[in-house]
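Protein Record: Sequence and Backbone Structure Tokens
======================================================
Scope: a single protein chain, as residues and as a discrete description of its fold.
Tokens: labelled as protein backbone structure tokens, with as many entries as the chain has residues.
Position: the record begins directly beneath this header, with no further notes in between.
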Amino acid sequence: MPLEEFLGENEEREKKYPFFKLSCSTALWRGYQGLWKLENNELFLIDVFLCASKERSLFRELFDSESPIRANWFTGDLFIQHGKMIKYHHSGFERYFEEETKVNIVQGSIMEIQHFVNGYQASDMNFPSNPDSIMAEVHNQINWKALPKLSKDYKVFVNIKMGVTDSLTIIHSKAPELYVQEVQSVLNEFPKLRKFYSRDEPLEEEYTFPVIFSNAQRKRFAH
């Protein structure tokens, strides 16, 4: 948020502006919502709402000025999303939209604007890179007929890293070596993965999933 530089760090902020001690919710840790506009190649702050409530404006308490005010304190990049959300990471609450505009600002003035189209490229026909598809395909490629009957279940844990380069690596196992070797042979021959692009760069992603050796999995995946 462009207002963070103006407000300062938490302790400094709460000492200068006691109303920020109020707790909003885990959906709004910073405690406020800013309303902005880009006009005539400049960034302007229109209003600031405590806990995102349009009925509780903080503008007069923060600025001795009429709205809007030019954000001459801010230098950095703004990212503006457009279109539908096409990817979501719950771990970091990261959302990726169909298109995105990057606006580079120096002391409140727009220096450069870049536009990006996010997502998978139409020409990329490699294997789907979502974790569920990868996990299912690993199980599907196991040579179940070559493995002995199971008296108990075993697990081999695989880590997936996707981005500029991809890797599928065994990181832990609770299984005899025969099963570990079988998983490794599948990983060695696993097809290339499709790339999800964000801001013209392959998105760096990482997941861990278990390869489960059980009679239920054998029945489901054995050819």
Observations:
- The helical segments are 4-7, 10-16, 59-62, 131-141, 177-188, 215-221.
- The first strand starts at residue 32 and ends at 39.
- The CA atoms of residues 132 and 217 lie 15 Å apart.
- The radius of gyration is 25 Å.
